[in-house]
Amino acid sequence: MRKLSLRFWVPQTLRHWATGIAIAFALIPLCSAQAPQKRPMTFVDMMHMKRLGATAVSPDGKWLAYSVTTVDLAKNTKTSEMWLQAIAGGEPFRIAVARPGDGGVEFAPDNKRILFLSGREGGQQIWLADFDPATGATSNPRKLTALATEADNARWSPDSKSIVFTSNVYPDCAPITTADFSTGNQCNADRDKARAESKVKARIFTHLLYRHWDHFTGDTRSHLFLVSVDDGGMRDLTPNNPHDVPPFSLDGGGCGCDFSPDSGELAYTDNIDPVQAISVSARIFTLDLTNPAAKPVQVSTSAGGNFDPAYSPDGKYLAWRSQARAGYESDKFRLAVYDRQARTVKDLLPNFDNWVDEFAWAPDSQRIYFASSVTGEEPLLVTTLDGAVRTVSDQGEFGDLHPLPNGSAVVAEHMMDASPSEVVAISTASNLPPGKRVSPITHLNDALLAQFDLP
Asked: Which of 108, 264, 277, 364 could form a disulfide with 160 if both were Cys (CB 3.0 to 4.6 A apart)?
């Protein structure tokens, strides 16, 4: 577009001066036409914004998978779709095997398959598909689980041979195992059917924590399951447990569990106190997956809540978010690190004043990246194993952290006060100031935000 050039002169008389002013004002619309006028944001605009969901990064650090939810105001509906995009740059494209409403995508550690959650054949189940890391192409979708109680929060084992997930089951039914799958599965199906067909819809509760936000807990409890990718063999890892695993948490999500790097052990969160409504003392347990007769072992030591266990990549440590005091739901979340050989737990950041909201191990197992709220922001920080903390980036709010395998950056969700969440790459290079390390990867709402006159 040609640039409009205006030249003015010094008028010799009042008449000339008035004529010059008239000409200048006449040309203002021409200048304005070069750049559209921005406008205030409305409620309808907010509903038109695309919502970023859960993200996943491929093991080689080349691909980003994420879900996007769009709102249809006229139909009063929300629809989620799964997308794939090269982290180094390129246009996003829909994951070919996914359908609207699918979610929970995770790359297999061997980079040959993905898993995702889909209800395309009824209840939500785990599905697998082949993945081509060279092109990002997905193919050959097939259903792995067929539970009457459905499946959620699926996560790969590091050897890509099995998947852990959660399902809400009736704990007094027979455990769902490969040896007697039909008995336990049918018991749960019959209980659900009887409740649905009963003409009595009233419910009687004799204990607290009978409702979580907008739904009743009922008689089912969340259990952890392990399923073999090769043959679909399955077992309930927390059979007959009367508690939810993971326990209900105000800020938690996912399975609340993690595999050891050798896939032989699982760490998870459980609250075994008899009255859940007056207890926040969730604890970290480990379970030997190589021995079907093994019992869980408690490794956390604090009296407060302990959540989100994560093994270091070298397998030497297990870290989690920990509260010190029992019965105090708003206690500060600290970063606890368990030395698996010495069997000792320490508060890694005893002098850090703020909460550790979430964290992720660096590939070298010598550092931990974490997000922490302070003065209206959620900066990304990093600590060494001796507790030395420095800021990686301090502009906006960071979450859903994925350190790249080469250690060059952390892929994360990023939200600013003037823009909704997008996925960015935060450089870990020490020669860059914290304010210059963020590079956008997704651009879900750029076109819409460009129309607004935001304060």
From this structure: 108
- Residues 389 and 284: their CA atoms lie apart, in Å, by 25
Region 290-317: what's the mean pLDDT?
96
Burial class of residue 77, CB neighbours in 10 A (0-12, 13-18, 19+): exposed
- In DSSP terms, which residues pair with 228 in a beta bridge? 162
Q: How far apart are CA 403 and CA 1, in angstroms?
A: 43
Distance between CA atoms of 235 and 177, rounded to whole angstroms?
Answer: 4
Is residue 67 within a helix (H) or strand (E), and if so which, with residue range?
strand 63-72
User: How far is residue 413's CA from residue 444's CA, in Å, rounded to a whole number?
Assistant: 12
Report how far residue 392's alpha carbon sits from residue 438's, in angstroms, rounded to the nearest whole number.
10
SS3 at position 63: strand
Query: Which residue in this structure is represented by tokens 């660096």?
Result: 362
CA-to-CA distance for 352 and 309, rounded, in angstroms? 20
Q: What is the DSSP string of 277-332?
A: GG----EEEEEETT-TT---EE----SS-EEEEEE-TTSSEEEEEE--STT-TTPP
C-alpha to C-alpha distance for 427 and 409, rounded to whole angstroms: 4
Q: Order of strands, edge to edge, in the sheet holding 419-427?
A: 397-403, 409-416, 419-427, 438-440
Output the average pLDDT for the chain.
90
Helix (H) or strand (E) holding 114: strand 113-118
Residue 318: CB partners within 8 Å, gap ≥ 6? 258, 267, 284, 286, 299, 309, 310, 311, 312, 337, 338, 340
Note the pLDDT of residue 179. Answer: 84
pLDDT band for 392, please (50, 70, 90 cuts): very high
Query: Does the pLDDT at position 24 exceed 80?
Result: no
The residue type of 241 is: N
| DSSP character string of 226-273 | EEETTT--EEESSTT-SS-SSPP-SS--TTSEEE-TTSSEEEEEE---
Q: What is the pLDDT confidence band of residue 19, given thresholds at 50, 70 and 90?
A: very low
- Residue 252 and residue 85: Cα distance in Å, rounded? 27
Retrieve residue 385's tokens: 């194993």
> Residue 187 carries which DSSP code?
H
Maximum CA extent, the chain: 103
